[in-house]
Amino acid sequence: MSDSIFIIQSGLAEGRRKSRLPGLLDIMQSASGLVLALFMWGHMFFVASILLPQGETIMWIVTRFFEGYFFFGRSIHWLVSCVAAFVALVFVTHALLAVRKFPAGYRQFRAIRSHTRAMRHEDSTLWIWQVYTGFLLFFLASAHLYQMMIWPQNIGPYASSDRVWSDGLWPFYLAMLLAVELHAGIGLYRLAVKWDLLPASRVFLKRLKWALTAFFLILGLATLGAYMKIGYEHRYQVGERYTPETLPDWLLRLAPAEDFQELRRMRTIPAEEAR
Ligand code: HEM
Fold this sequence. Notes:
The protein is mainly alpha-helical. Helices cover 70% and strands 0% of the residues. The chain is elongated.
């Protein structure tokens, strides 16, 4: 066999013409997954502000902060819609790129599942779980993002708790919490292994992954419990919005002049010092 025939038969001759697209799509998938996972961590801490002492006031401040209330002198709800729209864009991109790797049809799915079971290879099992949870998130995260985009004014200690309890959405949030924490944890682990992001062994990375998943699951469950409790206690005043009874002086000065007039008088903060 001549050298040229050998090269053609092994496919090496096509080497130069091979497309870079699959690699590029893989990078885009990893990058969008990383952005979503980092967003989720930040999101979880903001939503969990309800757990802090005086949590209702702290969550109110966090919500108003994102609405620009302390910067523009009023709540600009569409700012939240814009953030939700951006996250939705990254989410759809990530999902579109991920579908490439989903099993194409029931036969492929059964083959992957039976191979994974037979091999008992943990990383492959994790991958299957990422497919399951990712599939669930198609529906759950889309519905949640749509709600945040369309009704950004309905976010706050009472508004959110009413949604969770009186609108009966807590089972939805519970399912989304489990899916998103498992999905993000496995995703970040796979990212670290695939692109060699951290100088650590797989065993260590796996432990770190489970520790982070456990941390965010416990934080998420406690947070959901807090919204359910407030929602239950608030069940006869659904629709009423939360107004803090007190604010630190420096925040009071940033709030619009027409709000908190009574509190401002008590603290002897002149109206002209406010916005
Ligand atoms: C900018 C976009 C988003 C905003 C403004 C937002 C806001 C919120 C708020 C205010 C809550 C408390 C419950 C409520 O008000 O209904 C919540 C809960 C939750 N969100 Fe989001 N969210 C966004 C995007 C996402 C995304 C992309 C995911 C995941 C794919 C997600 C997952 C969750 C989960 C799991 C909970 C329940 C948290 C818990 O029970 O501890 N959110 N979100």
